[in-house]
Amino acid sequence: MNRRQIIKIALGLVLANSTLPSFAISTLNVLESQSQITWSGSKGIKALGTHTGTVAVKDGKVVINDAGEITKAEIEIDMSQIDNHDLSGEWKDKLLTHLKSPDFFDTAKHASAEFKSKKVMKLANNKYKLIGDMTIKGIKREAAIIGEYSADKDHNFKGTMSFDRTDFNIKFGSGQFFTNLGDKMIHDEVKLAFDIKAQ
Question: Tens of pLDDT along the chain (199 residues)?
Fold first, then answer.
């Protein structure tokens, strides 16, 4: 192959690559003070024993391509700021103290939890499924968030996730590990609702 042929091939590769679409990537920062994660869990008869509250958003990033689609997301949760909304006074204080204890989230040793996406699937319109790793108490398990993304004034993602707390070694009051708990049994499913704003 002579020099002229090499130059032609090189020019052809340059022209071919110039026709490929380019994707501008935007990394957005989560607005912690404007974002919220709501939790719910239950004991005994679910209809009568459901507790709800919030955990604070500590940090996070959302990556958007130039087609306006989410390609990656991660969020850090401040477990030391867990709060309850359905109780008050002494009962609220007791619940929060217990949730922060080693029986549950052990926030003195594990103040943060996090979710990092590994795969993002666009389901329809602005609906997405984010499959990734959820880390609680230093234990990592795969989890999924299903939700909807919109970009008006701010970039907003609202979604839900549920997980089995025993997967993260939170076994207190679980019917999987203890018997004869009656109405003191604490259900293993924990639900999270995300309302995340980024800019």
Answer: 555 554 445 445 444 444 433 445 799 999 999 999 999 999 876 555 799 999 999 999 999 999 999 999 999 999 999 999 999 999 999 999 999 999 999 999 999 999 999 999 999 889 999 999 999 999 999 999 999 999 877 799 999 999 999 999 999 999 788 767 766 789 999 999 999 999 9
3-state DSSP: the chain helix, strand, coil percent, rounded to 5? 20, 50, 30
Residue 8 lies inside a defined structural domain of this protein: no
Please give the residue range of the domain that contains residue 182.
Answer: 24-198
Domain count, the chain: 1
Q: Is 175 left (phi over 0), alpha (psi -120 to 50) or beta?
A: alpha
Nearest Cα to Cα of residue 115 among 73, 149, 151, 152: 73
- Note whether residue 2 is domain-resident: no
Examine residue 4 and state whether it is found in any structural domain, yes or no: no
Any idea what the CATH number is for the domain that residue 123 is in? Answer: 2.40.128.110
Q: Provide the whole-model pTM.
A: 0.82
In a domain, 15, yes or no: no
3 state DSSP class of 5? helix
Strands 50-64 and 112-124: unpaired
| Cβ neighbour number for residue 39 with a 10 Å cutoff | 19
User: For residues 138 and 149, what is the distance between their CA atoms, to the nearest angstrom?
Assistant: 29
